[in-house]
Amino acid sequence: MVCDFGMSEKLGPLTFGKREEHIFLGREIAQPKDYSENTAVDIDNEIKRIVMENHERAKSLILQHMDSLHNLATALLEKEALAGEEIDQVLGLKPVPPESPPSNPIPEARAF
Question: Rounded to an integer, what distance in angstroms lies between the CA atom of residue 60 and that of residue 58?
C-alpha cells in the first residue's frame, strides 16, 4: 500500500521499489531497492504507523460492540447459521416479529 500505490500521508503519492519479473525464474518477482536507507526507514515507520493505528481502531470497535458480538455468537451457537434479517434482529436493527399462535391442525366441529 505504501510502496506500490503511494498511499501514505507522510511519503506522499510516490511508489518505491521497481518490480522486475525474471521470466527465466518463472513468475518470481525481484524488488531491487532504488531508494536511500533513510527512505527505507521512513517506509518502515509509515507501515508500522498504519498497522498500529488500524490495530487500535479494530480493538476499539470490538470493545465498543462487545455486547453485540456476544449476542451474535450466542445466536450462532443456537442456530449455526443466520440470515441477514435474523442478524439485524439480533443486533437490534429490526424489531423481532411477534410469534404467531400455533395453528390448530384439527378443524373445529360445526353444529348443524
Answer: 5
Closest of 39, 32, 53, 52 to residue 10, by C-alpha: 39
* Side chain identity, residue 70: H
Hey, what's the cell of 44? Answer: 518502515
Distance CA 93, CA 90 (A): 8
What is the DSSP code (8-state) at residue 25?
G
- 3 state SS for 49-89: HHHHHHHHHHHHHHHHCHHHHHHHHHHHHHHCCCCHHHHHH
User: Cell match 470493545: residue?
Assistant: 63
Q: Which residue is associated with the grid cell 504507523?
A: 49
Q: pLDDT tens digits for 5-56?
A: 667 777 777 677 766 655 555 554 555 677 788 888 888 898 899 899 999 9
Residue 103 C-alpha cell reads as 395453528
